[in-house]
């Protein structure tokens, strides 16, 4: 049996194009990795996208990448970019105002800030991690609650380390766990407004974030490390983003955390 075939990703084709065509999504963290892949997939099914990220050059490149999905778009409003911190409510207000009408919000902003053994973390370090990550989640929640129309959705990100933690990750994983709980709390709170709230819990997905980790900075290193995973590889950003599109498009899914990890959480430790 060839392992090469099992380790080759199959391109993602969303079956949900009719549900998302003509909608508008704000992608907080849409300038790289999973958020950028969501932008490409959304544009390919006819949605408008607003990308939000802090680094102006990365934002410019991402807007250009998503516009290239449909070169006929030109510089119109099918793909917009807003530079700023997703935890700043003014940035989100600017994104909503620029779009005019927003149906879906996806938050993939974040990283691995706040890592370190608990004995070496100051209260200030912990507070800063919570302030930045949870603050950003609440900022998105407030924007969604006040500005999304009935039928809209908010999707957060977390990671499988929440259920299979590694040492030295207490602060960031506490925040990721809180985001999963926030998802359920908001789902019941916002259901009367006919808004849905979900989270995608990612395993190891081949993005610039994963490649920033020690020993994972080349294609060979990624392939070698991924070869021990159940499906013989790490996930692609498109596969991860495809789950977020599913959650945007399915009007009867709310309060859920769905895992995209190629079965890694099931594996032996
Ligand atoms: N990749 C994985 O293996 C993995 C596994 C588990 C969980 N996750 C989670 O999945 C999410 C997406 O990860 P990824 O791999 O796609 O990461 P990525 O490639 O590093 O992309 C993250 C994006 O978020 C933006 N960003 C970060 N902080 C921001 C902020 N405060 N405001 C606005 N934008 C911000 C970054 O751009 P700027 O820096 O320019 O703002 C970047 O565009 C993250 O929350 C990550 O923790 C990823």
From TrEMBL:
Coiled coil: none annotated. Signal peptide: none annotated. Keywords: Oxidoreductase. It comes from the Bacteria. SUPFAM superfamilies: NAD(P)-binding Rossmann-fold domains. GO terms for molecular function: oxidoreductase activity. InterPro entries: NAD(P)-bd_dom_sf (IPR036291), SDR_DHRS6-like (IPR051122), SDR_fam (IPR002347). Pfam families: adh_short_C2. Belongs to the short-chain dehydrogenases/reductases (SDR) family. This is Short chain dehydrogenase. It comes from Sphaerisporangium melleum.
């Amino acid at each position: 049996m060839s392992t090469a075939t099992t380790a080759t990703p199959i391109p993602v084709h969303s079956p949900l194009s009719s549900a998302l065509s003509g909608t508008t999504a704000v992608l907080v963290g849409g300038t790289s990795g999973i958020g950028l892949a969501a932008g490409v997939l959304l544009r390919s099914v006819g949605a408008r996208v607003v990308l939000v990220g802090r680094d102006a050059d990365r934002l410019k490149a991402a807007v250009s990448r998503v516009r290239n999905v449909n070169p006929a778009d030109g510089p119109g409003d099918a793909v917009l970019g807003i530079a700023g911190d997703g935890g700043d409510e003014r940035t989100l207000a600017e994104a909503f105002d620029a779009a005019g009408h927003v149906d879906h919000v996806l938050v993939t902003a974040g990283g691995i800030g706040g890592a370190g053994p608990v004995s070496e973390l100051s209260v200030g370090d912990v507070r800063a991690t919570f302030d930045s990550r949870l603050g950003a989640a609440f900022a998105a929640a407030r924007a969604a609650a006040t500005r999304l129309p009935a039928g809209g959705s908010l999707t957060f990100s977390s990671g499988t380390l929440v259920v299979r933690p590694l040492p030295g990750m207490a602060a960031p994983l506490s925040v990721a766990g809180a985001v999963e709980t926030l998802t359920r709390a908001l789902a019941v709170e916002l259901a009367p407004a006919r808004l849905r709230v979900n989270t995608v819990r990612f395993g190891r997905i081949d993005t610039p974030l994963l490649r920033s980790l020690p020993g994972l900075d080349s294609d060979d290193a990624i392939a070698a490390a991924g070869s021990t995973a159940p499906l013989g590889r790490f996930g692609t950003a498109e596969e991860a983003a495809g789950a977020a599109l599913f959650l945007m498009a399915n009007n009867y899914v709310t309060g859920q955390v769905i895992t995209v990890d190629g079965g890694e959480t099931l594996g032996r430790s």
